Amino acid sequence: MSITKFNKNKKPLFTFNATEGFKYFKLEELYKANGPDAVYPIRGWFFHTGKFGEQPVFFTDYCFINGPAHMTDQCKEIEQDPEAVAQINAGNAGFKIRDYINSLNKTSYSIEWVDVEQDKLPF
Q1: Are the C-beta atoms of residues 44 and 28 closer than 8 Å to each other?
Q2: CA-based, 20 to 30 A from 54: which of 19, 48, 79, 120?
Q3: Could you tell me if 27 and 68 are in contact, meaning their C-beta atoms sit under 8 angstroms apart?
Q4: How far apart are CA 44 and CA 58, in angstroms?
Q5: pTM score
Q6: Is the pLDDT of residue 119 over 50?
Q7: How far apart are CA 57 and CA 55, in angstroms?
Q8: Residues 6+ apart with CB under 8 A from 99
């Protein structure tokens, strides 16, 4: 065991760098604007702690998207999978937004991972 495991200056997992001026969106906003079939290529994420606990903030080619707290563990699991990280870094991973009724009988939003072929994206 080495003390170096506590160093925080590790190489970032995701190679995409967001540009200055990226806006934040909620899943609900994007779902209502673009519908359930829109595919959002994912370039990575970081974690933020808010009123619902730790949650991922996804970054795409053009914006940040606040992810649901229930995706935190899955995102951390993906970070441990070199193939999945490579797929994200290559621009070949994305998600669709889905709606569902939560335990309080209210509409909530989550994501469904999808494979992305860059040449088939509409933008």
Answers
A1: no
A2: 19
A3: yes
A4: 6
A5: 0.80
A6: yes
A7: 7
A8: 31, 36, 107, 108, 109
